[in-house]
Write a structure and sequence with these properties.
The complex is a heterodimer. By secondary structure, chain A is an alpha/beta fold. Chain A has helices at 4-8, 33-44, 57-67, 71-89, 96-101, 108-118, 121-126, 149-155, 172-182, 210-216, 259-265, 269-321, and strands spanning 21-25, 49-55, 130-136, 163-166, 192-194, 197-201, 221-225, 243-246. Chain B starts with a helix and ends with a helix. The chains are: A alpha/beta, B mainly alpha.
């Protein structure tokens, strides 16, 4: 484990112990258990967060983090959330068909109850600044039934863009709705209304809502946690943000054409435990590598300064002694 | 002097932590996307190619690697520049070391020179001390011997020529005989001679005489056993290896006593004259006449010469 000072200042700023660190948690359904391992390592490394943003399952995890007094407590609470989810999902990974019909975790009421049990809205209001991405979902024309997400994409105004909701500043009941909206999985969860606007899963259009932090909570460093290994996400698009990406070293998707969907809906305990472990190790690898490189550069410069100081003393003493007779 | 190196060091641009972070992050991105592309199945590969995602992934990977190479180049440049600073520092330290060595060499030369001077001074002091000790010992021995002689505790029963020869031998065998080989100074002989002459001048006078006659006047004063004793004390009858180096006067005097100790019927009529003849045959010319001071001087000189010879032999045998 690296020393907390270096790790928290991000390793990056290296010399700034009070560096502001922003955390961005991407969406990915059941793969979100990976982020518990990430947070576990960050907590051990002594990282202190200044703001957090999330999309979809990342928004759910982010809400627990934002409401907790510190990262260690957040990790413990998230572990409880995912344990409960795992127990509800059962021990055996269901087939794709079962996932949509028989999995209790994918029922809207489960998510609602989970959030109410584990996220204290008063704590959340006073907690870390939290932004979640949501996707506007137009109301169906009068007389027509709600056609679902895939129709939203057609009916929504072409100019509509993903939005970020600052959860802490919403009325209390809308805070809950906002979290449910961002986590409203396509096909499965119904849209939610916040401020008179219907929203669905923010991951549809902005699965990595770092722009919310760039716009509203400038930080010295952004730690972005992806749940898709090969995602075509380019940190250079978010300059001047200083970004460290945590990407799964091993793909989180299952094999096969529908492996990605299956991985998003597999909430079993065994899977969650494996993802959590992988998240921990991937984060350790990423942060340790950065820490080593920066510490090495810093050591080189410090040792050179010491060397030059010693040389200066030697020069001064030699001047005092003078040349031999 | 350090200022120039320190100034150079300050001119080296430090690669920002941000750049190093991007280097590491770019590597992570390239690894992840490449692994994903490598593991795509045939259908997924076709789909990603149709959608252009494969091309996008390739470009993102290449850009990450290019950025990483650029960061690496900056970092390597900084390391090389700092390496050059280290080399300059080592060179400066080498200069200091060379200077220190030069100073150490000078100090060593000075120490050697000082050591030689001190050694010479010590040797001189040691020699002076040894000479002083030898002189003191000789003076003490001379006073002791002459005082005992004055008091009649030594040689009192002997005729004056034998007293002179034996007191000279006694002094030469002791510290007085050691003085001359140590100091190389023979002036102490005069002091010995004067000391002996002063004590007998009133008795013997200044007249000249034949040595053989004086010896012949001497031996009748002694009994036969005394004659043998004196002859033996003077080394008569000693094996050649034990005998003192040539002392002509003492040898003639000893031979005189040896002949005088013979039974009357075997004794030559004039042992002194016979001894002188024998001595001349053995050792070449021996001055047969003398004054009293000259007799004493000859006795002292031949005894001290013999002592010097013996000490020289001893020193040559010493390691």
């Amino acid at each position: 484990m690296s020393d907390p000072l270096v790790a928290s200042s991000l390793v990056v700023a290296g010399t700034a112990p009070r560096a502001r660190v922003g955390l961005v948690l991407a969406g990915g359904g059941a793969k979100g258990a990976y982020q518990v391992g990430v947070l576990e390592y960050l907590a051990e490394a002594g990282v202190r967060l200044a703001a957090v943003a999330g999309a979809s399952i990342g928004a759910l995890n982010a809400s627990v983090v934002a409401a907790a007094p510190d990262l260690a407590a957040a990790t413990a609470r998230l572990a409880a959330v995912w344990d409960e989810t795992g127990r509800a999902a059962g021990a055996v990974s269901p087939g794709i068909g079962d996932l949509l019909t028989a999995n209790p975790v994918t029922r809207p009421e489960f998510l609602e109850r989970l959030l109410r049990r584990h996220v204290d809205l008063a704590e959340l209001r006073a907690g870390l600044p939290l932004w979640v991405s949501v996707y506007p979902s137009p109301r169906p024309p009068a007389g027509l039934p709600d056609a679902g997400w895939f129709v939203d994409a057609v009916l929504v105004d072409a100019s509509a863009r993903c939005q970020w909701l600052h959860v802490n500043s919403l009325p209390q009941e809308e805070m809950h709705e906002a979290l449910c909206a961002s986590a409203a999985l396509p096909f499965i969860m119904p849209p939610r209304t916040v401020g008179g606007v219907r929203y669905r899963d923010g991951g549809i259009a902005d699965n990595t809502p770092i722009r919310a932090l760039l716009a509203h909570a400038p930080c010295d460093l952004f730690i972005v946690v992806h749940l898709t290994r090969g995602i075509l996400w380019d940190a250079r698009d978010y300059a001047p943000g200083q970004i460290l990406e945590i990407r799964p070293e091993k793909s989180l998707s299952a094999d096969g054409v529908l492996g990605g969907v299956g991985a998003m809906l597999d909430f079993t305990s065994g899977r969650a435990t494996a993802l959590r472990r992988q998240g921990y190790h991937d984060t350790e690898r990423a942060l340790e590598t950065v820490r080593e490189v920066i510490a090495s550069a810093s050591a080189l410069r410090r040792s050179q300064a010491i060397m030059l100081d010693s040389l200066r003393l030697l020069d001064e003493e030699a001047t005092d002694v003078g040349p031999p007779a | 002097m350090t200022g120039d190196v320190a100034a150079l060091a300050r001119q080296i641009p430090a690669v920002e932590d941000r750049t190093l972070l991007e280097l590491v992050n770019g590597l992570t991105v390239a690894q992840a996307i490449t692994a994903d592309r490598r593991e795509l199945g045939p259908v997924a590969r076709i789909v990603t190619q149709i959608l252009g995602r494969d091309r996008s992934g390739e470009l993102l990977t290449l850009q990450a690697l290019i950025d990483g190479q650029r960061a690496l180049m900056c970092w390597v440049t900084e390391i090389c520049d700092r390496g050059a600073i280290t080399n300059l520092t080592v060179a400066r330290i080498a200069d200091h070391l060379r200077l220190s060595l030069s100073m150490a060499e000078s100090a060593r030369d000075m120490a050697t020179e000082l050591g030689e001077v001190l050694g010479t001074r010590l040797r001189i002091l040691e020699e002076s001390r040894a000479r002083a000790d030898a002189l003191s010992a000789a003076e003490h021995a001379l006073n002791a011997s002459l005082t005992a002689w004055d008091a009649g505790r030594t040689y009192a029963a002997l005729p004056w020529p034998y007293q002179v020869i034996l007191i000279a031998r006694e002094l030469a065998a002791g510290a007085c005989g050691r003085l001359e080989p140590l100091t190389g100074d023979d002036r102490y002989r005069l002091r010995i001679t004067d000391g002996i002459v002063a004590r007998l001048r009133a008795t013997v006078g200044e007249r000249g005489f034949a040595v053989a006659e004086v010896l012949d006047e001497s031996w009748p004063e002694l009994r036969t056993e005394q004659r043998w004793l004196v002859a033996e004390v003077l080394g008569i009858g000693l094996d050649g290896s034990l005998a003192l180096p040539s002392c002509p006067l003492a040898s003639v005097a000893g031979t005189t006593m040896e002949l005088a100790a013979l039974p009357e019927d075997a004794r030559p009529s004039s042992p002194g004259r016979s001894a002188m003849s024998l001595g001349r045959r053995r050792q070449g010319r021996i001055d047969g006449s003398a004054t009293f001071p000259r007799f004493v001087e000859r006795a002292v000189n031949e005894q001290l010469d013999a002592a010097s010879t013996v000490w020289g032999q001893v020193e040559r045998r010493s390691p």
